[in-house]
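Lab notebook, page 48
Experiment: co-folding of the full assembly
Goal: obtain a model of how the components sit together before planning crosslinking
Operator: M.T.
Materials (sequences as entered):
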Amino acid sequence: MSQPRGPLSQLRRGHEELVLGLLRKHGPLSRGELGKHCGLSRTTLYDILAELVADGAVVTATSQDTPRGRGRPAETLTLNPDAGQAIGIDFARRGLHVAAVNLAHEVIGAASEPHDADLPWEQRVELAGRLVGSLTGIGSGAALRLGALEAVGVGVVGPVGGQVGGQAQDEDEDAPHPVQVLLRERFGVPVLLDNNTRLAALGEAIWGAAAGDQDVLYLRLSHGVGGGLVVGGSLHRGAYGMSGEFGHITVEPGGARCDCGGTGCLETVASIRAVLDAYRAAGGRAADVPELVKAVRSGEETALGLLSGVGARIGETLAAVCNAIGPSVIVIGGELVETGAALSEPIERALHEHVIPVSRHRVSLRSATLGEVAGALGGIALVLHESPLLSRYPAGPDLAEDLSMTPSRHP
Amino acid sequence: MSQPRGPLSQLRRGHEELVLGLLRKHGPLSRGELGKHCGLSRTTLYDILAELVADGAVVTATSQDTPRGRGRPAETLTLNPDAGQAIGIDFARRGLHVAAVNLAHEVIGAASEPHDADLPWEQRVELAGRLVGSLTGIGSGAALRLGALEAVGVGVVGPVGGQVGGQAQDEDEDAPHPVQVLLRERFGVPVLLDNNTRLAALGEAIWGAAAGDQDVLYLRLSHGVGGGLVVGGSLHRGAYGMSGEFGHITVEPGGARCDCGGTGCLETVASIRAVLDAYRAAGGRAADVPELVKAVRSGEETALGLLSGVGARIGETLAAVCNAIGPSVIVIGGELVETGAALSEPIERALHEHVIPVSRHRVSLRSATLGEVAGALGGIALVLHESPLLSRYPAGPDLAEDLSMTPSRHP
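Observation: model returned without errors.
Model output:
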């Protein structure tokens, strides 16, 4: 699926991007209008347009505005809303999520598939390739235009900080992540990497529950408990890429051992496994979250009592972080959110009780809206790198060297 | 002390700033070199230089480099290291702190004076005027060049968020702070305002213990417990100006009532009053921090035991915030830091115990170095607005309208 990347093809890509950018900005344009805006020669422009139409990236329409009987109706060109441009992949612990946006930067499709936690990277990348392929056919006559891929934005579990675009910046982490090597081989484009929960925060802050907010705290309650921060209008990575580790804030001194090496972390109380274990220890019966949700919906006391306690711990932790950072919106995502008010109400009560009183009515609690593809969408945001939320995000050296992200680099 | 601010005086100020900026950037320059850099006419430049020399802002020196016997030695012009340019004032709860920097943006003097917590604003501003006056005479033949004041940067207690330069941006806080009105009357220049603890954080991150760091957590242990954050290289205010409220993170659920309206806040355990009260309740005798410090230095068990417990609470809180934000440096300031290792060691132990293990050796704990004038210095930083840490800080409308901050606005 890779394509030639020599100087001529890069020049052509630059021209294509220029034309696509104009159509993204202005909407439908006639060939004449495009010519005025882009400054390309008539021959070059018509060549580029023929190719973009043949590829399905651009479609033609006859303008409705032309007065009858006054010559031929003008033909306008517009972005094909079904043509894909960028993909994001979230390599979560036990499943894979893929999303694609079209040339107008609208989400055109997403796909997910669960897998075992120990599936090797080679097979995960195979699966990713198949899921990306499955996005072909979404909408009417859609086709993910893989030839137009600029980069793949990827989320992985665990801390990512020193690495951008496969270039290590931290002496402790000087090898690229295996998934970067494998995906680069497969797609022939740069692979941008970040922590998948931080990417989910970015996704929610661009397309989801906190779209348009400048100070956002995102908490994910899943197999792990983690999160991400948008701080003063920028995605925050923290020194060494270690921000958003809300799951490892101590909530029970001397409590249960946590995978991180600490004890009594929020994750030992509020992860899926912790919640299900505690529920079963209290006499409840549920093998997974959907069964727990069923018990909650039936009004079962054991389930409600347990979630009340878990919610209180979560709310106390959120209050501490709120006092430190001062967000206007808290977004809560992850599978456990499906338990609804049984969890969100005790969270909100504890948050309001423990946050500094002057902030009580200034911070709002919302459920995530993007579901399990939030991380994949955040990966797309990294690729497009157009959100002001990314203004302080390091631009990878790969992007500077390999990509024709902006037409101005190819006059 | 105010000066005419008509268009002509502003034009002249622009020229002055241009010349001062060139000397700040290049160091000593001859008149000819200055002429080449600044683009002003010879007559205008010589006029400006004559005035700056008469004011004491610029001093002349004879270059050492001129070969003997080859004409007159060249005269160079240089900034007077003793001439003041900007002042910052910290209106703390029980005292006033003032600092001044020279034209090279080096700190040239600072003064403090304690006062009662209920001293009216009029008298505080009077006192501020006197302290600013006292900075005259610092160093050899120094004189604070009040005529060159561009603005006064001021720290006050409590949340400040919606207000910049006297212009309210928050519907709840639409009146300027009384100190802004009074200071503007007195000095005739705009008054930039922020929370004084956040300004102390800024001061430490520019001139103090964390100079050069991009992700800094500053905690102040004083009559109140508060702090500030530098996040990804920017001073962070938070939505509604409510960041850095570390003192109101709950550390003892159901604990003592706090001034904020909550209970069991860190401030109820780690403020000066809380520590002295607990010390006396445990049988210790100390009326103030210096007496407590004396007890600590004599190795008194009661004092050491108490601080060990307080330090543990502080360290746990810092660990929670660290996990959320991922700073590389924690700076601790305020009077209680004078207790030394008796407090800092238990803080560090608890921090290391509760922070996520992978961050343990990545975050360093430091004592503040600027002392009680950190907030006043942060106020100066607001006025100069030259630190990259302020790149996301809102520029006040006053600055845009009144000030000739950049020569380019006066061609």
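Interpretation: Chain B has three domains: 7-79, 84-199+376-409, 212-369.
Next step: discuss with group before ordering constructs.
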